[in-house]
């Protein structure tokens, strides 16, 4: 290691301080929200809640978990994430595999056909009206099917497939395997990193996406968690939520204590944490995949 | 076997393109695309002469330029600084933390930011009160003057760490001998960043710059919908995309909204083409 000059040392110290500050500014808002969600709402209203809960309680979460809509929305999000990711990654891989095969006639034209849609689109309103004319409003599938083929992901897949040794697929073909078999038994298993990365990105997208549900879905039983959270943030339905939760299945004693401690702010923070946690728990472990994924994605340009 | 996927693309991406024709119609809900009367450029004329036009254009351009001017260099700066850190564990932790907001939805980020800035004992107000910088809580998200700052700042805070990945990878690919040679010649870290790191990652910076320029009319959509819930902010927050959304879904003026959307699409394609040409020119001067 080279010796550092005095100027370099000053620079080092400056950077360490700045990075610590950055880490703090990034983490603190989430930490503070977590703390508020774990603190009695009535106590939070007095102010001064920063790093630790002053009057720790799980009441906020109790109300959140008692609310059947939140459980339902969580379930819809989970279903959407799993089925959306499986279908999208599979269909996109099939398309990419097809377009990576040299014997496919006119594959250049098919490529252009796909890539055009990355730059031109009908726009929000025509897409909405089309889906409505298809009668897809208020169905679960409207959240998954329109975006099932991702051209961007297809290009990443295809680039990767083109880099695989051609003999691999050929020998399987000679052994009597059809194309679907080649893709599923040979190509996908050796494409681990790409499949992992694209699945991760697709899953995060599906878990986080709230806008399409907000315009395509009215049925309260089909609302994903993020869309519900957005509705909660924008209105006073938290108060109903509170009343509903304590009105139905709580003993009189419980009701009294919940009304006294839970506020809309503490409830919003608890709901936010419920929507946040699944991703916060997994993303650090997937770091090596997405770093790789970002790089594959940026090289294709 | 590619056929089903191509049919999907045709249905969900190409059919809506046909729908842009409705910008030239008076779209009627029950008539559909085929039975609505043609009205030529009436909706475009209405959009251009509407008083909203200039507000929306100004906001779109100002917000995009702010995001480009401040949001674009931020991850480069972060990557340069992370690269100077010798303690590997510390570096990893800071990096992992810096990605975090990228993986959360705008709804969550909006809720957390709203809580931080709220007058109801939000941490920012508490801090400013303690420091005696203000004397009563400020409702940050309902003051038009602060909105652009909050919007751009939140965007940087959310995406900076993730965007830095590519630059860090580019920096990692630089030949270490270059630094050794520079150090022997007496260059300090600062000089080394200036004379080696930056020139070496210039191609990557240029590529991303071009992509960003092509995107310039996308001032934002989700972030604005989430952060600008207070109608007081409309004069500073409405951009073309949110305007299309508002006109289309909240006022049910489908054709008018489609016209505004089509206008944006046309200008965007023009900018993309211009950026691509610039790319070719810069590309040739680079090598």
UniProtKB/TrEMBL annotation, chain A:
CDD domains assigned: TM_PBP2
**Which keywords belong to this entry?**
Cell membrane, Membrane, Transmembrane, Transmembrane helix, Transport
Q: Does the entry feature the keyword Chaperone, yes or no?
A: no
Q: Which InterPro entries match?
A: MetI-like, MetI-like_sf
One GO term (biological process): transmembrane transport
**Which cellular component, as a GO term, is one annotated location?**
plasma membrane
Q: Does the keyword Transmembrane helix apply?
A: yes
A family per Pfam = BPD_transp_1
* Predominant cellular place of this UniProt entry's protein: membrane
Q: Where in the cell is it found?
A: Cell membrane
Q: Where does the chain cross the membrane? A: 12-31, 73-97, 109-128, 140-161, 182-207, 267-286
The family assignment reads:
Belongs to the binding-protein-dependent transport system permease family.
Name of the featured protein: ABC transporter permease
Automatic annotation (TrEMBL), chain B:
Residue ranges spanning the membrane: these are 5-24, 61-82, 103-119, 146-174, 195-217, 254-275
Q: Which SUPFAM superfamilies match?
A: MetI-like (SSF161098)
Q: Identify its membrane topology class.
A: Multi-pass membrane protein
Protein localization: Cell membrane
Q: Where is the ABC transmembrane type-1 domain?
A: 57-275
User: Which keywords are on file for this protein?
Assistant: Cell membrane, Membrane, Transmembrane, Transmembrane helix, Transport
Specify whether Chaperone is a keyword of the entry.
Answer: no
Gene Ontology CC: one annotated term: plasma membrane
Q: Is-annotated flag, keyword Transport? A: yes
CDD domains linked? TM_PBP2
Q: What is its main location?
A: membrane
**Its Gene Ontology biological processes?**
transmembrane transport
Give the family per the record. Belongs to the binding-protein-dependent transport system permease family.
Stated name of the protein: Protein lplB
């Amino acid at each position: 290691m080279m010796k550092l000059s005095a100027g370099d040392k000053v620079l080092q110290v400056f950077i360490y301080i700045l990075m610590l500050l950055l880490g703090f500014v990034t983490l603190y808002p989430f930490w503070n929200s977590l703390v508020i969600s774990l603190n009695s709402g009535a106590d939070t209203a007095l102010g001064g809640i920063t790093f630790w809960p002053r009057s720790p309680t799980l009441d906020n979460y109790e109300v959140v978990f008692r609310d059947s809509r939140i459980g339902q929305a969580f379930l819809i999000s989970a279903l959407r994430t799993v089925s959306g990711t499986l279908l999208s990654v599979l269909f996109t891989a099939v398309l990419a595999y097809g377009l990576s095969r040299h014997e496919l006639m006119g594959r250049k034209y098919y490529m252009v056909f796909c890539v055009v849609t990355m730059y031109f689109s009908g726009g929000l309103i025509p897409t909405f009206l089309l889906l409505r004319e298809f009668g897809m409003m208020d169905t679960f599938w409207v959240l998954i099917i329109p975006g099932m083929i991702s051209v961007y992901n297809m290009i990443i897949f295809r680039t990767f497939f083109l880099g695989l040794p051609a003999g691999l697929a050929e020998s399987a073909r000679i052994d009597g395997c059809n194309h679907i078999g080649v893709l599923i038994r040979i190509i996908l298993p050796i494409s681990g990193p790409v499949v992992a990365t694209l699945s991760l990105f697709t899953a995060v997208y599906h878990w986080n996406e709230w806008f399409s549900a907000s315009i395509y879905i009215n049925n309260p039983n089909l609302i994903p968690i993020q869309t519900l959270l957005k509705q909660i943030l924008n209105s006073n339905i938290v108060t109903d939520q509170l009343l509903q939760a304590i009105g139905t299945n709580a003993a009189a004693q419980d009701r009294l204590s919940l009304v006294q401690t839970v506020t809309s702010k503490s409830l919003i923070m608890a709901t936010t944490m419920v929507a946040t946690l699944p991703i916060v728990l997994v993303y650090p472990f997937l770091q090596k995949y997405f770093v790789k994924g970002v790089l594959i994605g940026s090289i294709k340009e | 076997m590619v056929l089903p996927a191509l049919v999907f693309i045709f249905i969900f991406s190409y059919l809506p393109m046909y729908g842009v024709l409705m910008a030239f119609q008076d779209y009627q809900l029950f008539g559909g695309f085929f039975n609505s009367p043609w009205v030529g450029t009436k909706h475009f004329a209405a959009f251009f002469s509407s008083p909203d036009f200039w507000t929306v254009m100004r906001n779109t351009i100002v917000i995009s330029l702010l995001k480009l001017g401040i949001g674009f260099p931020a991850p480069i700066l972060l990557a340069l600084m992370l690269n100077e850190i010798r303690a590997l564990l510390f570096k990893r932790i800071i990096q992992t933390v810096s990605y975090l907001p990228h993986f959360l939805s705008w709804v969550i980020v909006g809720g957390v930011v709203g809580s931080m800035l709220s007058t109801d004992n939000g941490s920012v107000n508490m801090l400013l009160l303690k420091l005696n910088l203000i004397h009563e809580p400020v409702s940050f998200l309902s003051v038009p003057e602060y909105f652009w700052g909050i919007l751009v700042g939140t965007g940087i805070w959310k995406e900076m760490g993730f965007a830095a990945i590519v630059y860090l990878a580019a920096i990692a690919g630089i030949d270490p001998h270059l630094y050794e040679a520079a150090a022997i010649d007496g260059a300090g870290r600062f000089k080394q960043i200036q004379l080696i790191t930056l020139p070496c990652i210039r191609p990557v910076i240029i590529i991303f710059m071009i992509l960003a320029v092509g995107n310039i009319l996308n001032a934002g959509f989700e972030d604005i919908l989430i952060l600008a819930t207070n109608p007081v902010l409309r004069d500073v927050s409405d951009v073309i995309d949110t305007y299309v959304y508002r006109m289309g879904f909240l006022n049910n003026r489908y054709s008018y909204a489609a016209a505004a959307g089509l206008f944006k699409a046309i200008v965007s394609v023009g900018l993309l083409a211009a950026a691509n040409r610039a790319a070719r020119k810069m590309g040739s001067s680079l090598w």
